[in-house]
Amino acid sequence: MARLAPVSKHRHAGTYWQRFTDVSFAAQTSMAPLVARELPMAALNFPTAFALEEGRYSLVGLFSLFPGHNLFVGPDGKWLADYLPAVFRCHPFSLARQEDSDHMVLCVDEDSGLVGEDKKERFFDPVGELDKSVKDILEFLQQLEQNRHGTRVAVAALADAGLVVPWEIKAKAGEQEKTVEGIFRIDEEKLNKLDDDTFLGLRRVHALPVAYAQLLSMGHLKKFSKLARLHEPVPAPDIETLFGDDDIFRF
Q1: What is the pTM of this model?
Q2: Does residue 195 carry a pLDDT above 50?
Q3: What are phi and psi of 97, to 5 degrees?
């Protein structure tokens, strides 16, 4: 489990860190949050979906149908797609909200194996300011958080329009069949039948690209069986999925 600590001169002035060389830290992450800005690349590489968290939908990348497994992390720790989600790229750093505040602070996972006196990159420069490498990561995370707000607005608009529906997926591993729960998709038939006012409202909050990209990405679900064969003893699922009435998304 991650042990997040706010980055501070008191705690990290004499400590160093290093960049990750593989993504084995994500090997048990079956889905991860995405923002709209990265969705065009994400949708070309893996399925995207929506997850319900604390009463609202969030946009996620889907990496497995089985919790605790990430099929896109190879046995050697390498990422098995051409796009790595932004949430992974800043490891071991992240932003966390201060308790009873909207202020976000930079944190580092001190149990990542990437923090210590024997590492190569410093947290703070000789005059006590954040080192440029850490400052660049902080700026990237802040931009990511800003885009996350717009993404939430777009996803909420899609949900309010009744377009976010359960993604009915059945996965068979061996003799066992299970219905995958907690994953949602865009209802393409409803999207195509929207009235003009609702459609224009979605366009104003940049929700339409999110909807179309999510629909496009659903075909990547068929990659899971192939990827699972690289992960023995992770079961290779035989997938049946309901996309809707448009055959373009069937396989």
Answers
A1: 0.86
A2: yes
A3: -80, 130
